[in-house]
Write a structure and sequence with these properties.
With 189 residues, this protein is α+β, with helices and mostly antiparallel strands. It has 3 helices and 7 strands. The chain has a domain of 85 residues. It is 27% helix and 17% strand. The longest helix is centred in the middle third of the chain and has 26 residues.
Length: 189
């Protein structure tokens, strides 16, 4: 048998747990509605709040201790930045010149170097060095060095100076080099 009969089909009648729950909720709210509201006599809800005066604290300036090593590194970096800036300004103001077109024929010496300046571009050639454990390669008798002009370099798709080094038809070896304002390039065959 069911303790809580169903209200299905019975209009207006509620089951026992529903009625008792509603009664308990209503009775628990009555004391809160009947209790007197305690109002503080001194509270002024629209006035200025009474606060204590602010007190200042003792303040001293912060002076960090300087690390001597870090200071030296920063000074060195600042000096390097100033030197880089001066060098960049000098590079920007320097007039750039393209080497002239020229040709020179050099004979590969047995020892030492041979020098020439095709197109005002200094070029040197030295005898080949033998590989370790092997005999010295055959020296080229004479080589021709050509410096091409800027239009020809552009036509070849090169953004820079173009040199051609032509050896004898019989072959041979040598160590050609040229130096362009502090830039040293080694040419290899």
């Amino acid at each position: 048998m069911n303790r809580f009969p169903s209200v299905a089909g019975k209009r207006g009648r509620r089951s026992w747990p529903t009625r008792s729950l509603g009664t308990v909720a209503a009775l628990s709210l009555i004391p809160g509605l009947l209790a007197p509201v305690a109002v503080a006599a001194e509270v002024d809800p629209l006035g200025k709040p009474k606060l204590s005066k602010p007190q200042s604290a003792d303040v001293s300036p912060f002076t960090p201790k300087v690390n001597k090593k870090a200071k030296a590194v920063r000074a060195e970096a600042a000096a390097a930045r100033r030197a880089d800036t001066a060098r960049a300004k000098a590079d920007q103001n320097r007039k750039v010149t393209w080497p002239e077109t020229g040709t020179a024929t050099l004979t590969v010496p047995a020892t030492g170097t041979a020098q020439a300046a095709p197109g005002a571009l200094p070029v040197t050639i030295a005898p080949p060095k033998p590989d370790k454990g092997k005999k010295a390669p055959q020296r080229a008798g004479a080589v021709t060095v050509n410096v091409l002009d800027q239009q020809r370099a552009t036509a070849l798709g090169v953004k820079g100076v173009v040199l051609t080094v032509t050896g004898p038809a019989a072959g041979g070896a040598g160590r050609p080099r040229h130096q362009l304002r502090g830039l040293r390039l080694r040419l290899r065959r």
